[in-house]
Amino acid sequence: MIIIGSGDIGLIMARRMTLEGAKVQAVCEIAPHPGGLKRNIVQCLEDFGIPLLLSHTVTQIHGRDRINGVIIAKVDNNWKPIPGTEKFMSCDTLLLSVGLIPENELAQIAGVQMDEITSGAVTDQDRETSQKGIFACGNALHVHDLADYASEEAEIAGRAAANYILNPMEKTLHIPVIPGDGVRYTVPQFITSAQEDVKVYFRAKNVCKNSIIRAQNGKDVLAEKKVLRIIPSEMETIILPKDRIGNKISEVKISIQEVES
Model confidence at 261, in pLDDT bands (50, 70, 90)? Predict the structure, then answer.
C-alpha cells in the first residue's frame, strides 16, 4: 500500500492498515511539511518504521484490472513534479487522504457569506454568521486538528445562540480580523462586541521557529506571544483583551514574525 496525504486521517490509516496486516510502503506528502500532528507522525509512522516522503507525489498509476505499482516523484516549490526524480514503487493499493472540506450546502442556501480559504462561514467572535441568528461552529466552520477546539467552539456558538434567543443585543462594532504575514486564515473573521476577550484561531502558511505572534491595529500591538515552533497542521490561537477592542480600532491583523534565537 501507498498512502497519499500526511494529514491525521492518512497517518492513522497507515497504522490501522499495518495492524490489519498490510505493508505500508510509504506515505507521500506533496507539501514540504507533514499535514498531521507530531504525535501521530511518531505513533503511526515512526513507531512502525513507515517512511514519510515529503515534497513527493504520485504521478502515474500502473495496472489494469488491479493496481500493481505507482510512480512517485519529488515536487518543486510550486508542487510540480521534478523531471528525473521519478521512482517506481510496487503496491496493490493506493489510499488517498487528501483533505476535508466542510459541508455547507444549508448555509449557502441561507445566503451565509462564505470564506474562500476555509470553505466555511464568515463569522464574528460569537460564531454568528452574516445572516443574523444563524451560527456556525466545528468542522462545518473550519477543519480542526483537535476535538478540544471543536468542542470549545461549540460552547461559544451554543452560548451565543441561547443569548440571542433570551436576551438579544444590538452589536455595534464591525472590526475585520485579517491574516497578515505567515497566516493563512483566521476565525473569527470580524469582531462585533468587546464585552469579552476574543480568542482568535488561525493556521500558519509555513513551518516557523522562534516566532512572535502579533495582533495589531496598524502599528499598535493589541496582543502578542512567543512560540518556539509553529506548523500549518496545528491550530494556533491568540487572545485579544476586551479592553483593547473598541470603536477606535479599524482592523485586527494577525501575523507571524520569526526572530533570531
Answer: low
